[in-house]
């Protein structure tokens, strides 16, 4: 697949909205951008693009080549995993959740699919965006990489716990999924 079913990229004036101090503050509360200085986050956002995906369309599908990660700004999306020729729902993503981070860390195809439940807008962050941050501010780039590593580690711990509990015959607690942002 060539990528998300975009209804468009950054609309006129959207860059200004993304640089709004309240918007930057909300993003700093997300796991990926936590503790980033406002100026570094504004620099990074100036390079990224906002994407829109219509309800029912795909951000990406399991097996697609990975191009970047996303931070959901509006709408809800569903994480789906293929199992025996069926797409099984894993989790619902809400505004502020991020997905696709592994694309920034490895070169493997997508491990799950993401489909918009509602009309969605999301920030797309690519390896090139991170490279520009690296060239601009090594300390802040390192912080983003550490945040991504922490988020992936948190998800791995929760997944390990769920796997262990399942092997012991205990049903995993549905409230603790590895894909949530908090």
Describe the secondary structure blueprint for this structure.
Elements: E1 6-8, H1 14-18, H2 21-28, H3 38-47, E2 49-53, E3 58-60, E4 69-74, E5 77-83, E6 86-93, E7 98-99, E8 113-116, E9 120-125, H4 127-136, H5 138-167
Antiparallel strand pairs: 1-2, 2-9, 3-8, 4-7, 4-9, 5-6, 5-8
Describe this structure in words.
The chain has a single domain (6-165), classed as Sandwich (Jelly Rolls). Helix content is 35%, strand content 24%. It has helices at 14-18, 21-28, 38-47, 127-136, 138-167; strands at residues 6-8, 49-53, 58-60, 69-74, 77-83, 86-93, 98-99, 113-116, 120-125. α3 packs across α4 and α4 packs across α5 (138-167). The mean pLDDT is 85.
Name the overall outline: globular
Question: Distance N terminus to C terminus?
Answer: 30 Å
- Average pLDDT works out at 85
Q: What is the fourth-level CATH superfamily?
A: Jelly Rolls
Percent of residues in β-strands: 15-25%
Q: Could you say what the CATH architecture is?
A: Sandwich
**E-strand count:** 9
Helix and strand succession? EHHHEEEEEEEEHH
| Radius of gyration over all CA atoms, rounded | 16 Å
Low-confidence segments, given as residue ranges, are: none
| Coarse structural class | alpha+beta
Just give the CATH class.
Mainly Beta
Oligomer designation: single chain
Separate helix tally: 5
Looking across the biggest beta sheet, what order are the strands in? 1-2-9-4-7
Largest sheet: 5 strands, antiparallel
Query: Into which percent range does the helicity of residues fall?
Result: 25-40%
CATH topology: Jelly Rolls
Q: In the residues, how many domains can be counted?
A: 1
């Amino acid at each position: 697949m060539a990528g998300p079913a975009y209804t468009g990229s950054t609309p006129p004036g959207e860059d200004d909205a993304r640089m709004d101090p309240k918007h930057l503050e909300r993003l700093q509360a997300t796991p990926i951008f936590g503790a980033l200085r406002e100026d570094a986050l504004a620099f990074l956002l100036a390079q990224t693009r906002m994407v829109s995906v219509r309800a029912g369309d795909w951000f990406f599908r399991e097996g697609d080549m990975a191009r970047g990660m996303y931070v959901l700004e509006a709408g809800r999306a569903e994480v789906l995993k293929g199992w025996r020729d069926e797409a099984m729902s894993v989790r619902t993503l809400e505004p502020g959740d991020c997905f696709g981070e592994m694309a920034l860390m490895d070169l493997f195809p997508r491990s799950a699919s993401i489909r918009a439940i509602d009309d969605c807008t999301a920030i797309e962050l690519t390896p090139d965006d991170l490279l520009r941050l690296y060239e601009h501010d090594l300390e802040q780039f390192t912080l983003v990489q550490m945040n991504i590593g922490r988020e992936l580690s948190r998800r791995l711990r929760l997944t390990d716990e769920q796997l262990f509990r399942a092997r012991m015959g205990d049903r995993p607690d549905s409230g603790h999924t590895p894909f949530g942002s908090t």
